[in-house]
Amino acid sequence: LGAEDSALPESFAARFARYSRRIGERLDQTLPGADVTPERLHEAMRYAVLNGGKRVRPLLVYATGECLAVEASLLDAPAAAMELIHAFSLIHDDLPAMDDDDLRRGAPTVHRKFDEATAILAADALQPLAFDVLVRAPGIGDRQAVELVRLLAGACGSLGMTGGQSIDLASEGRLLRPAELEQMHKLKTGALIRASVLSACCLSPALANGRRDALDRFAQAVGLAFQIRDDILDVEGETGVLGKQAGQDERRRKATWPSVFGLPASRERCAELLRDGLQCLDAFGSDAEFLRWLARFIVEREQ
Ligand code: GRG
Predict the structure, then answer these.
(1) Mean pLDDT, the chain, as a whole number?
(2) What gap in Å lies between CA 184 and CA 262, rounded to an integer?
(3) How far apart are CA 71 and CA 262, in angstroms?
(4) For residue 190, what is the DSSP state?
(5) What is the atom index within ligand 1 of the atom nearest the CA of 161?
(6) Rounded to whole angstroms, how far apart are CA atoms 33 and 239?
(7) pLDDT in tens, 110-126
(8) What's the pLDDT at 5?
């Protein structure tokens, strides 16, 4: 029996697991096999994408789609595209030229497992694959595909994630002003989270502007909270639980929310952003239940 056929309502945790499995399978089918030439490149791409991760961005696509009654089969492409870009960004973020990390998701980073050149090429190949997935998506018309491509391109470019990463690298050893710090977080992490929610909105053509704006504000609040939580976990978390080396931000003298505002104010800001984000969902009633649960997961997570 599928969850929808059983007498008991599906728990949110079970829904989380079901969508995680779904996106895992879609990504597996999307990536070239490790036996396809060039094998080592494909092996590295598959390692980067299929080796765990919370799948928060695809889950936001599915949860927003649920809220708007968009068919899950239409959401698979934007969900996969978000995760492919996310995996690309993690490979680059871990490189010696950037954060120079050895551990990610409890395993060696891609350049440690393979080598630097292979890691760069794997990331290079994941980015176009994300856009290819969007333009080939079954059931999605040309106009919607163009809109999805536009959303994703904006989220990863110099006015999105790449710009945020550039500010992050330049911030090492400097004390950023609060507004600069918020801008960096919104771009580096918030942009892709926002694009995840807005991609599902784009697949609901009759969505009223007011409701789209409410979901947009929700996404922006949760996106910022996600990175503040990440900063807090870097201070409070343990390497074994995080799956990446804890304490790296302090070691590299990065500008983070706790370094600028302190831990108690960082926790309070996260809680406030969660409250603001949840308030944006009020008009959606019970349709937004899973989205609310996911927002809490994002803000209260331990890894
Ligand atoms: C991808 C266009 C493009 C450019 C690369 C390197 C870079 C520019 C951007 C880095 C962005 C970055 C690494 C932001 C940090 C975001 C963040 C908190 C990552 C951790 O995300 P989780 O916790 O990771 O969702 P898992 O492992 O669960 O998937």
Answers:
(1) 95
(2) 18
(3) 43
(4) I
(5) 9
(6) 31
(7) 999 999 999 999 999 99
(8) 52
